[in-house]
Amino acid sequence: MNVLGLFALFIFWAASFPAQAQPAAGLPPVANQRFVEPFAAIVNDDVITQRDVDQRMKLTLLTSNLADTSEMRSRVMGSLLRRLIDEDLKIQAATKQKITVSADEITAQMDAIEQQNHMPVGGLVKLLTSKGIETEAMRQQIRADLAWSGLVRHVFAREVHVSESAVATRLDVIRANLGKPEYHASEIYLRVDNMKDDAEVRDLAERLTEQMRRGAPFAAIAQQFSQAGAADGNLGWVSEGMLDDVLMTALDRLQPNMLTPPIRTTDGYHILMLLEKRKVGEGLGNGPTVDLMVIDLNSLPSANQAERDLQMQHLRAILAPAKNCDDLSHLGKQAPSATINIMEKLPEAQLPANVSPLIKDLPPGQISEPIDAPKGRRFYAVCGRSQGDSDALPSADDIRHRMEEQQLELVVRRHLLNLDRGAIVEIRQ
Fold this sequence. Notes:
The protein is an alpha+beta fold. The chain is 46% helix and 19% strand.
């Protein structure tokens, strides 16, 4: 069983399965039921037991492909305990807003992981048990991610507002930056709450960087350790002025799929990976362009041809009702083995020779025939076309959507910081 592949699916589902605002009772309090066990920390009225820490440690090392040694445990302990505290605070905040996560929602994700990895019913629990990991360790992590996702969607999003003047200003910036480099990057961020912790956090950042250079997957490490941003660390496309100057300079020195060393900023350490690099507005005014949706259907290396064909049929059935790319994005969330990206303003003249025929006469909302990809099969869908004139610049709606996402990220960081500052936390020495 490919554990890393398994966890990659878990990352997708944790990010895409929305928590629902329900009038039901809040999440069951964990603390009062477990005072009999040795505690590692008390977060307001909730207890994180030493057993919780031990179980999450096993899960973290397994899914991050880190060696389970006493040295490694010592290195990651501070960050791991900080994450457990943050998760507890997130669940408490969601509960106050009457946002709940049902056992059925969590079980549905566990079942989906089994199905997408061609495991028998109960196979995931069996795998975890064989590694000495209690199922509740994974369920608790899923519960916290879903609760926080629901809080962000139903509460924090109300604080986001992007004015027409802000959109116009951003469009002026895009025009001014035409021809300058922009970067598609991912980030792992490790917060430094106190200067006395700086050496410990730096040491962890260096060790994680070393492990990723040896092959540990960036997305899995980000899911377990990063303290901001998307679950898999994806920052999207960034350009001048969107990140600290020191981070932008570091990205400019990278080649695709390369990592920076840990970079210290005012509040913590950042590890960046460059995925792609291009120039702002590349392709504008150079003939017809196309907005292309790329759907990668990822299969396990052990999957045979029949299993891959069945997986493809399942994806087609899920996406069949779609009439446009928005529908495809929404429906695609039901297929956790599929990853979806939209590439905007691609010059049609520069499309690969095996792609152009697939999309030439493709109706909106339909996916193309597949081509082979490194991890499975790849499909395409056309989201829009342009003749390459000034209208090829991003639309006002596109700009507003991106700005709302960036603003929401800042709102989320502020709320999490406020939760930390307002909490009464006792950590066992």
